[in-house]
Design a protein that fits this description.
Blueprint (H helix, E strand, L loop, with lengths): L5 H11 L14 E2 L10 H16 L3 E3 L2 H10 L2 E2 L5 E3 L2 H8 L5 E4 L8 E4 L2 E6 L5 E4 L3 E4 L2 H13 L18 H15 L5 E3 L3 H15 L3 H6 L4 E6 L4 E2 L1 H12 L4 E5 L2 E2 L7 H22 L5 E4 L3 E3 L6 E2 L3 H17 L3 E4 L9 H16 L4 E6 L1 E2 L4 E3 H17 L7 H4 L1 H7 L9 H6 L15 H6 L5 H15 L7 H16 L7
Parallel strand pairs: 2-12, 7-19, 8-21, 10-11, 11-13, 13-15, 14-16, 15-18, 18-19
Antiparallel strand pairs: 1-7, 2-4, 3-4, 5-6, 8-9, 16-17, 20-21
Helix pairs in contact: 2-10, 4-10, 5-6, 6-7, 6-19, 7-9, 7-19, 9-10, 11-12, 12-13, 13-18
């Protein structure tokens, strides 16, 4: 066979990059954001949000719907109304609690190479979490089930840009709620070696998940408290209320020095004021109440401020995501977190009902907002669809492409002498080309980002290959990844201990349901 020219090799390489079956991954890495954060409000405007939030924390205050939590707040210095539920915080108490929050923390995965730092300039990306439905182009939209949940775990393990499992990628509703958490956590441990999170859905579920995590890490109780190993995420029942199951999660994780992410669910026009400024005031007040409460349980416990403020479609009431309002709220949330020196959680979200162009451009808005706002965790990073009601297998791959591209944007440009390429420019001179220069031949295989999904072939070649668009290429790609999946190794003694624990807890009836 005749040797191909450098130009032919580059054209073949470029044309095949997006072909069905090709999968060019970036290595698993700790992603750092080297650029300055984008700040869209002045210091005075930011302070006005803070001051208004402090007023809300005094009047009307926040409802805590768990007597044990109310007592912790009372002991910690909060004022409790006669009804035993309304908790009020003064300025000095909030400031004292904020002062004990660590500005960064490490969470340790079963595989140490997959441990992550939250804070500083790190950006961490989690898979989609909690939709009640799953979908793909072959079988359509369907109710969440354990098989699809496990397949999303396999994808999360296989795709490097998906750095952590974030709860149930789709809710496995075919498992009894009393034992669902046991099977789900066991699957997360056996099918991945990345970080995962527990659901704060009552005390017993949290305690079971914590014990399974301790067994997985092979630690004593005291060792477990010294190393953060698992998250919980708590959504405030906006407006201005923390439910009992969520409070139990905050208490039990904080007691064991495990991280909690507090996220108000502030949709402007529905569960928050219709004005963006008002919605941000409410978000900030709810977040500050949660951050302070965790510090009352255990000063210095790792905690994260979650921003999720968006708007609703005022014609239908449906949530909208990836909107200009969502972007501005995300950026301002980042400014607030930098003011408080606490890690920040955002999301990759959209409101599209299909893995189409709308899902992509709304997600791209969300991704840019998280990056420009210096979020430390991008929740729902891969697979979110339909405003969070569906986890899409194709969207998982589409998101992986967008996120890999963003990581390459964050890669600094080298300006050393060889990269400035003065010798190559002199050699080629006016009117030439650079295909055959030594400078090009030394670099062409790794010079540019190689997509995992995009197809860069010309129209004729693409048409001859079947004219497969990006969504169908994503469909083929996720199925190929599932076919080639290999489970990460797990110590057999640990596996046996975990399965024995799960079996025992099932015999005991699992967790209470309401």
């Amino acid at each position: 066979m005749a040797r191909r020219s450098a130009r032919e090799r580059m054209r073949a390489r470029r044309g095949g990059a997006g072909g069905v079956g090709a999968f060019h991954q970036l290595p698993f890495q700790r992603i750092r954001n080297p650029y300055p954060p984008f700040e869209i409000v002045s210091a005075d405007e930011l302070e006005s949000i803070h001051e208004a939030s402090l007023e809300v924390l005094r009047d009307p205050g926040i409802n805590f719907l768990l007597p044990d939590a109310v007592e912790i707040a009372r002991t910690g210095g909060a004022e409790i109304d006669a009804d035993g539920q309304r908790v009020r915080f003064d300025r000095e108490l909030i400031e004292a609690c904020l002062a004990t929050i660590p500005p960064a923390f490490t969470v340790h995965a079963r595989n140490p190479e997959h441990s992550l730092v939250f804070g500083e300039r790190y950006l961490n990306i989690a898979a989609v979490s909690s939709p009640p439905n799953a979908s793909d182009l072959d079988r359509g939209r369907r109710s969440g089930n354990f098989e699809d949940y496990c397949n999303f775990l396999r994808l999360t393990q296989s795709v490097n840009i998906a750095q952590m499992v974030s709860g149930h990628a789709v809710e496995p509703v075919d498992i009894d709620p009393a034992i669902r958490h046991l099977d789900s956590v066991l699957a997360a441990i056996e099918l991945t070696d990345k970080l995962y999170r527990l659901y704060s859905l009552g005390r017993q579920r949290i305690l079971d998940g914590l014990e399974m995590t301790r067994i997985m890490r092979g630690m004593t109780e005291s060792e477990f408290e010294r190393e953060a190993s698992v998250f919980t995420f708590v959504n405030v029942n906006s407006p201005l209320q923390f439910d009992a199951p969520m409070l139990w999660g905050m208490i039990e994780l904080a007691r064991r020095n495990q991280p909690v992410a507090i996220t108000p669910f502030t949709l402007a026009g529905a569960m928050a004021p219709v004005s963006l400024a008002g919605a941000l005031v409410q978000q900030n007040a709810e977040a500050l109440a949660g951050l302070a409460f965790v510090q009352m349980v255990r000063p210095g416990a790792p905690v994260m401020y979650g921003g999720f403020t968006s708007n609703v479609d005022m014609r239908s009431g449906a949530p909208a995501f990836g909107t200009p309002e969502y972007v501005k709220a995300t950026l301002i949330g980042g400014q607030l977190c930098r003011r408080y020196r606490v890690p920040y959680r955002s999301s990759n979200v959209n409101a599209s009902n299909a893995p189409d162009v709308q899902s992509a451009y709304e997600s791209e808005m969300s991704i840019w907002a998280a990056v420009l706002g210096h979020a430390h965790l991008m929740h729902h990073g891969l697979g979110w669809l339909e405003g969070g009601l569906t986890a899409s297998f194709e969207k998982f791959i589409i998101d992986a492409e967008m996120l890999q591209s963003m990581v390459e944007v964050l890669k600094p440009v080298s300006f050393d002498e060889t990269e400035l390429a003065l010798d190559a420019i002199r050699d080629v001179g006016p009117g030439g080309h650079f295909f055959g220069t030594a400078h090009t031949l030394e670099r062409y295989e790794s010079a540019f980002y190689q997509p995992l999904l995009s197809d860069w072939r010309n129209f004729e070649t693409w048409s001859e290959a079947g004219a497969v668009d990006a969504t169908w290429r994503a469909n083929a790609m996720f199925k190929e990844l599932l076919r080639s999946y290999e489970a990460p190794p797990l110590d057999e003694a640990v596996r046996e201990e975990l399965r024995a624990f799960v079996s025992k807890r099932k015999e005991e009836g699992g967790a209470p349901t309401w």
